[in-house]
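FAQ: What does a ligand-bound record look like?

Like this one, built around guanine:
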Amino acid sequence: MSEIIDGKKISAQIKDEVKEKVAAYAKEGIEITLAVVLVGNDPASAVYVNNKKKACEYTGIKSLSYELPEETTEEELLELIEKLNADDKVNGILVQLPLPKAIDEQKILDAISPLKDVDGFHPQNVGALSIGKKGYVSCTPFGIIELLKRSGVEITGKNAVIIGRSNIVGKPMAMLMLRENATVTVTHSKTVDLKNVTNKADILIVAIGKPKMITAEYVKDGAVVIDVGIHRMDNGKLCGDVDYEAVAPKCSLITPVPGGVGPMTIAMLMQNCVNSVEIIKAAK
Ligand code: GUN
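The answer part, i.e. the structure of the complex:
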């Protein structure tokens, strides 16, 4: 029978640790500021951005909010980013994704100073992660590492299978698990005989974006299962990429949806904001 990995509890601990560090910096006269940029009217993005601002309030990080209309041009957004890059009072810059279709997302992410890239999406930070240099790490995979470590999961030498190869989760997750000495396999929609591969996983990390796709046949007895997906079902309830009821009895540990990976992303964003102080200082 499985135990739950409580993302709500672990994220609350991390936010409390961040709050203490922010207070300690404040005593030294150092204030931490996050600029949050939202373009357009995507309702889910508005909720995420609001939660990020609330977490800032809780931890004592100052947040600056930029809410721009749907018609904002790429040039206008680039101008704002340049201004924030040059502002010594701003530690971190977060541009909420997705952006309106008329704006080239990668061009915007590339324009954010790598020293203020608290999302860890800039090519320089992605590269730093892959060669083991210091830098910002993408918040969701960074949070999954914390969930595993704080739940006492041994990673070294384990078979870790990741389902999904996105730039935000799958790829950085693979790099992080490698850094923790796991033997890593990355699978995706074109993988042949996925079940055969996932059945070898001691740690299975699912970020495929399909509700309840991972059923019991995909999971080895005693595996640790991390579910990154979040979907609203017709009955109004939330579910993940994993069929929780079917899979949970088979694993040793599993993250629920909601209350698993979700709350960790914002906690790690707060952690990255704290890390910005050292990252910016080291570059001076
Ligand atoms: N949209 C969905 N997830 C994220 C995230 O982690 N960061 C940003 N900036 N946008 C997102």
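Follow-up question: can I read anything off the structure? Yes, for example: Residues 94-97, 119, 139, 265 surround guanine (CB under 6 Å).
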